[in-house]
Amino acid sequence: MPDKMPKVYEGDQPFIFVSYAHADRDVVLPIIATLVDEGYRVWYDDGIQLATHYPSYIADHVYGCESFVVFVSRKSLESSWCNNETNYALDLEKRMLPIYLENVELTRDLQMRMGHLQAIHWYKHDSYGQFYKKLFEVKILDPCLTPDGERRREEKRLWAGKARAVLDSAEYSRQSYVEALNNLRSITRADEEVESLIEKLEERIAFEDDNRARAINQANSALNAEEPREGSLRVAIEELNSLMDKDEEIEALIGDINDRLTDMETERIRHEQEKKRKAEEKRKAAEERKAEEERLAREKAEHERREREKAAAEARKAQAIKRAESALSEPKPSRRALRKALADLQSLPKGDHEVGRLEQRIRNSLRSWNVR
After folding, report:
1. Are 97 and 48 in contact (CB under 8 A)?
2. Alpha helix (H) ranges present in the chain?
3. Residue 212: exposed, middle, or buried by beta-carbon count in 10 A (0-12, 13-18, 19+)?
4. pTM for the structure as a whole
5. How far apart are CA 27 and CA 73, in angstroms?
6. What pLDDT does 84 receive?
7. pLDDT tens digits, residue range 26-53?
8. Could you tell me the CA-to-CA distances from 158 to 147, 155, 163, 204, 217 in Å, in that order?
């Protein structure tokens, strides 16, 4: 039962006449209240003054209604008032919607007259959400909507459509989810579809919040590590950039990580340049070392060559001196031997005192030969 009785419509605009057994009030009145809350103009037998002529008053409203809703139950089928109202509405060919509160079999006359009508079986629905979704899809009730009800219905369609679009797209932000959620929560009565959309939006928002918290923690851990690693920083900034909404805290973290990565890149470049400089210095030192070794090798070879030449010269000198002394030591040296010895001595480098002395002795000996 609603806290207060639903407002009964009295006016000249299209309205719904509700026929029900009073024994079913606990079920029917909440449904009437929901119809009224949704903006439908509804008339039912509440607050009829005692002095009013009841049959004619009821008949006038059946006659004047746009749509006729009858709640069918065992009690309503036993009620002469309900049967009279229903038959009168059928006689007037009113747009009629039977709502079965329980599984009952119509009387033969009612089966013949309304068995073919579109109906809603309230007792078959697992939830009120399913029932109301079915109820509000019935077109014969639409003419009885107030302008405010039509506006709210349109808003509901609009908000639900936008919520579905937000959920189906990868381009929307967390703020879009929040706006869609607030719009859906503004709907007076949320059916199962709206409740499902609200649940999905809440889950999506919670998911984004979890992602945000995880990304912030990951970024702070990467930044505050004793030795920050470039790989960890790049993973952290990718997580931050993947977030839908970037507030000042996120932007600040992204800036801090970019600064740290820039510092690392600068240090890496400096290190590479230092490494190249040292490698160049090492190469130059190696080249200088090689050049020095080659110079020393050349000097050594030259020294060895000179030593060999000196030794050879000394050997030739010794041999020439030996021949000269041998020729001079003969009691009667031959002219040929003296000339050969003189030629050997003259082939030696000039300036040697001993060689000069021997040359002079040989020349003297040769002059002695000429005197003879």
Report:
1. no
2. 25-37, 54-64, 74-78, 80-91, 108-114, 128-136, 147-168, 174-185, 192-224, 230-241, 248-329, 335-346, 353-371
3. buried
4. 0.58
5. 11
6. 94
7. 999 999 999 998 899 999 987 555 444 6
8. 16, 5, 8, 20, 38
